[in-house]
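# nightly structure sweep
# worker-07 picked up a monomer target from the shared queue
# config: single-sequence mode, recycle default, output format = structure tokens
# input follows
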Amino acid sequence: MIAILDYDAGNIKSVEKAIAYLGKEATITKDRDEIMSSERVILPGVGSFGDAMKRLKSSGLDKVIYDVVDKKIPFLGICLGLQLLYESSEESPGETGLGLLKGTIRRIPDGEGLKIPHMGWNSLEIKPGATLFQGLPANPYVYFVHSYYLKAKREEEVAATTYYSTQIHASVQRDHIFACQFHPEKSGTVGLKILENFLSVESPVKGED
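# output follows
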């Protein structure tokens, strides 16, 4: 079973549908026991960093996420879910993120001829051996919708980058924690392969997906 964390953020159902398309079972849940007994956990979402953190904290899901990470259950953050893994965001000054990874979430700088939010397809430059991108061609295109981007502190955790007005750290990996700024569930066959690779990561929780 794959747990998709329910904290009233947008875009959750599309992730569930993508997982189902891959023939796996997923449940949208905020129940701690159900999450902790899942083989993999996904934190999707679109919206405001500050509002999302308030919802995670008020529901207690922030503590559940820490427990998931401590248990080494494979964890995937998508879009806002990536940003929430970090300590803070320029979008919501004073609001503390989960702080599981080191880096800053910054507003995409204005660029001539570029629109913000960034909405569209961009190619990725992938770090050799990056788990989520195994079996994909060089520089695959994926779909982005965002106004803020990650500047990771630790280059060794960056799995893929793209360029839109500035270099964007588009995907990260540290041990069993994975995250994508883009939307794999909206990125066609490339995105499905990325999700499939995540579903293949070994989990300490045994059972059927």
